[in-house]
Amino acid sequence: MRKIIGGMHISLDGFIEGPNGEQDWIEAWDDPYDLASEVDTCLLGGGMYPGYEQYWTAVISRPDDVLPFSGKRPTPEEIAWGVFAQRTPHIVLSTTLNSSPWPNTSFIRDLDAVRALKARAGKPIYAVGGATLVSNLISAGLLDELRLIVHPVLLGGGKALFGGVHERHRFDIAETRSQATGDVAVVLRPKKAA
Which domain holds residue 141? Predict the structure, then answer.
Protein backbone atom coordinates (compact mmCIF):
# COMPACT_ATOMS: atom_id res chain seq x y z
CA MET A 1 0.00 0.00 0.00
CA ARG A 2 1.28 3.45 -0.89
CA LYS A 3 1.90 6.09 1.75
CA ILE A 4 0.25 9.49 1.74
CA ILE A 5 2.61 12.23 2.88
CA GLY A 6 1.26 15.68 3.68
CA GLY A 7 3.47 18.74 3.49
CA MET A 8 2.43 22.18 4.71
CA HIS A 9 3.83 25.55 5.79
CA ILE A 10 2.46 26.57 9.18
CA SER A 11 2.84 29.49 11.59
CA LEU A 12 3.75 29.01 15.25
CA ASP A 13 0.09 29.49 16.14
CA GLY A 14 -1.10 26.80 13.72
CA PHE A 15 -2.29 28.79 10.70
CA ILE A 16 -1.57 28.26 7.00
CA GLU A 17 -2.94 31.69 6.02
CA GLY A 18 -3.36 34.98 7.84
CA PRO A 19 -6.77 36.53 8.64
CA ASN A 20 -7.09 37.94 5.11
CA GLY A 21 -5.57 34.96 3.31
CA GLU A 22 -2.03 36.34 3.56
CA GLN A 23 0.84 33.99 2.84
CA ASP A 24 3.53 36.66 2.53
CA TRP A 25 5.30 35.17 5.56
CA ILE A 26 6.35 32.19 3.41
CA GLU A 27 9.62 32.96 1.64
CA ALA A 28 9.28 30.52 -1.29
CA TRP A 29 7.04 27.71 -2.56
CA ASP A 30 9.77 25.28 -3.51
CA ASP A 31 10.24 21.73 -2.15
CA PRO A 32 11.33 22.21 1.48
CA TYR A 33 9.85 18.79 2.31
CA ASP A 34 12.27 16.96 -0.05
CA LEU A 35 9.37 15.18 -1.73
CA ALA A 36 10.00 15.53 -5.48
CA SER A 37 12.21 12.45 -5.66
CA GLU A 38 9.94 10.40 -3.36
CA VAL A 39 6.47 10.82 -4.86
CA ASP A 40 4.80 10.12 -8.19
CA THR A 41 1.35 11.66 -7.58
CA CYS A 42 0.05 14.87 -5.99
CA LEU A 43 -3.30 15.00 -4.17
CA LEU A 44 -5.08 18.32 -3.64
CA GLY A 45 -8.36 19.55 -2.30
CA GLY A 46 -10.78 21.35 -4.59
CA GLY A 47 -10.55 24.61 -2.66
CA MET A 48 -6.80 24.84 -3.09
CA TYR A 49 -6.44 23.49 -6.61
CA PRO A 50 -7.42 26.55 -8.71
CA GLY A 51 -4.86 28.81 -7.01
CA TYR A 52 -2.22 26.08 -7.11
CA GLU A 53 -2.74 25.60 -10.84
CA GLN A 54 -2.62 29.35 -11.46
CA TYR A 55 0.57 29.80 -9.44
CA TRP A 56 2.57 26.96 -10.99
CA THR A 57 1.35 27.75 -14.51
CA ALA A 58 2.70 31.29 -14.00
CA VAL A 59 6.03 29.96 -12.70
CA ILE A 60 6.50 27.84 -15.84
CA SER A 61 5.06 30.19 -18.46
CA ARG A 62 6.46 33.47 -17.08
CA PRO A 63 9.53 32.65 -14.95
CA ASP A 64 10.82 36.24 -15.09
CA ASP A 65 7.56 37.88 -13.94
CA VAL A 66 6.27 38.67 -10.49
CA LEU A 67 4.05 35.80 -9.35
CA PRO A 68 0.45 35.86 -8.17
CA PHE A 69 0.03 35.44 -4.40
CA SER A 70 3.72 35.95 -3.50
CA GLY A 71 4.37 39.20 -5.35
CA LYS A 72 7.93 37.93 -6.01
CA ARG A 73 9.81 36.46 -8.93
CA PRO A 74 10.19 32.67 -8.78
CA THR A 75 13.35 31.21 -7.31
CA PRO A 76 15.31 28.56 -9.22
CA GLU A 77 13.94 26.00 -6.74
CA GLU A 78 10.36 27.11 -7.47
CA ILE A 79 11.01 26.75 -11.20
CA ALA A 80 12.34 23.22 -10.57
CA TRP A 81 9.19 22.36 -8.59
CA GLY A 82 7.03 23.88 -11.34
CA VAL A 83 8.65 21.57 -13.90
CA PHE A 84 8.07 18.60 -11.57
CA ALA A 85 4.46 19.63 -10.94
CA GLN A 86 3.73 20.02 -14.63
CA ARG A 87 4.80 16.45 -15.45
CA THR A 88 3.40 14.76 -12.31
CA PRO A 89 -0.16 13.41 -12.13
CA HIS A 90 -2.43 15.53 -9.93
CA ILE A 91 -5.59 14.14 -8.39
CA VAL A 92 -8.11 16.64 -7.05
CA LEU A 93 -10.60 15.63 -4.37
CA SER A 94 -13.64 17.77 -5.14
CA THR A 95 -17.38 17.46 -5.36
CA THR A 96 -17.64 20.51 -7.64
CA LEU A 97 -14.59 20.69 -9.94
CA ASN A 98 -14.73 18.58 -13.10
CA SER A 99 -12.04 19.78 -15.47
CA SER A 100 -8.71 21.53 -15.67
CA PRO A 101 -6.61 22.91 -18.51
CA TRP A 102 -3.56 21.53 -16.74
CA PRO A 103 -2.23 18.25 -18.13
CA ASN A 104 -2.21 15.13 -15.95
CA THR A 105 -5.08 16.29 -13.74
CA SER A 106 -7.99 14.07 -12.77
CA PHE A 107 -10.79 14.37 -10.23
CA ILE A 108 -12.14 12.10 -7.52
CA ARG A 109 -15.20 12.66 -5.34
CA ASP A 110 -14.66 11.06 -1.91
CA LEU A 111 -12.27 9.47 0.57
CA ASP A 112 -13.15 5.97 -0.71
CA ALA A 113 -11.50 7.00 -3.97
CA VAL A 114 -8.44 8.15 -1.98
CA ARG A 115 -8.32 4.70 -0.31
CA ALA A 116 -8.45 3.07 -3.76
CA LEU A 117 -5.67 5.38 -4.99
CA LYS A 118 -3.58 4.47 -1.97
CA ALA A 119 -4.07 0.75 -2.73
CA ARG A 120 -2.61 1.06 -6.25
CA ALA A 121 1.04 0.28 -6.92
CA GLY A 122 3.40 3.23 -7.01
CA LYS A 123 5.49 5.62 -5.01
CA PRO A 124 4.06 7.66 -2.12
CA ILE A 125 1.41 10.31 -2.79
CA TYR A 126 2.05 13.93 -1.81
CA ALA A 127 -1.00 15.52 -0.16
CA VAL A 128 -0.23 19.10 -1.15
CA GLY A 129 -3.20 20.56 0.74
CA GLY A 130 -5.23 22.48 1.68
CA ALA A 131 -6.20 22.41 5.30
CA THR A 132 -9.53 20.63 4.76
CA LEU A 133 -7.90 17.85 2.76
CA VAL A 134 -5.16 17.29 5.36
CA SER A 135 -7.68 17.36 8.22
CA ASN A 136 -9.94 14.87 6.42
CA LEU A 137 -7.01 12.54 5.69
CA ILE A 138 -5.96 12.63 9.36
CA SER A 139 -9.51 12.01 10.59
CA ALA A 140 -9.95 9.08 8.18
CA GLY A 141 -6.61 7.50 9.14
CA LEU A 142 -5.28 7.89 5.59
CA LEU A 143 -2.31 10.19 6.29
CA ASP A 144 0.92 8.26 6.94
CA GLU A 145 3.29 11.18 7.46
CA LEU A 146 3.06 14.94 7.91
CA ARG A 147 5.98 17.20 7.02
CA LEU A 148 5.60 20.69 8.38
CA ILE A 149 7.72 23.76 7.84
CA VAL A 150 7.11 25.77 11.02
CA HIS A 151 7.70 29.49 10.52
CA PRO A 152 8.67 31.59 13.54
CA VAL A 153 5.73 33.96 13.16
CA LEU A 154 2.47 34.42 15.03
CA LEU A 155 -0.37 35.34 12.67
CA GLY A 156 -2.98 35.88 15.38
CA GLY A 157 -5.74 34.34 13.27
CA GLY A 158 -6.54 33.00 9.83
CA LYS A 159 -7.05 29.54 8.40
CA ALA A 160 -6.04 26.86 10.90
CA LEU A 161 -4.33 23.79 9.49
CA PHE A 162 -6.12 21.46 11.88
CA GLY A 163 -9.45 23.28 12.15
CA GLY A 164 -11.28 20.32 10.64
CA VAL A 165 -9.88 17.75 13.10
CA HIS A 166 -12.38 17.20 15.91
CA GLU A 167 -10.86 14.36 17.91
CA ARG A 168 -7.52 13.56 19.47
CA HIS A 169 -4.74 12.18 17.28
CA ARG A 170 -1.25 11.45 18.58
CA PHE A 171 1.89 11.66 16.47
CA ASP A 172 5.48 10.54 16.86
CA ILE A 173 8.12 13.11 15.96
CA ALA A 174 10.32 11.30 13.45
CA GLU A 175 12.67 14.19 12.65
CA THR A 176 13.30 17.87 13.25
CA ARG A 177 15.85 20.11 11.60
CA SER A 178 16.55 23.82 11.40
CA GLN A 179 16.36 25.36 7.96
CA ALA A 180 18.77 28.01 6.66
CA THR A 181 15.76 30.37 6.51
CA GLY A 182 15.23 30.12 10.29
CA ASP A 183 12.20 27.87 9.90
CA VAL A 184 12.04 24.40 11.46
CA ALA A 185 11.19 21.27 9.48
CA VAL A 186 9.26 18.67 11.48
CA VAL A 187 8.35 15.18 10.29
CA LEU A 188 5.44 13.56 12.17
CA ARG A 189 3.90 10.11 11.88
CA PRO A 190 0.54 9.08 13.36
CA LYS A 191 1.06 7.01 16.48
CA LYS A 192 -0.19 3.48 15.99
CA ALA A 193 -2.79 2.26 18.47
CA ALA A 194 -1.35 -0.12 21.07
Answer: 15-190
**What are 133-189's pLDDT values in tens digits?**
999 999 999 999 999 999 999 999 999 999 999 999 999 999 999 998 899 999 999
Q: Is residue 3 part of a domain?
A: no
3-state DSSP assignment of residue 59: helix
Please give the Cα distance from 178 to 155 (Å, whole number): 21
Q: What global pTM score does this model have?
A: 0.94
In the chain, helix, strand, coil percent, each to 5?
A: 20, 25, 50
Q: Taking residues 62-73, report their average pLDDT.
A: 86
Taking only the tens place, the pLDDT of each residue in 81-125 is 999 999 999 999 999 999 999 889 999 999 999 999 999 999 999
Is 28 inside a domain boundary? yes
One DSSP character per residue, 73-118 reads PPPHHHHHHHHHHHHS-EEEE-SS----SSTTEEEE-SHHHHHHHH
DSSP characters over 159-170: EETTTT--S---
- What pLDDT score does 33 carry? 87
- Does some domain include residue 9? no
Distance CA 163, CA 17 (A): 12
When divided into structural domains, the chain yields a total of 1
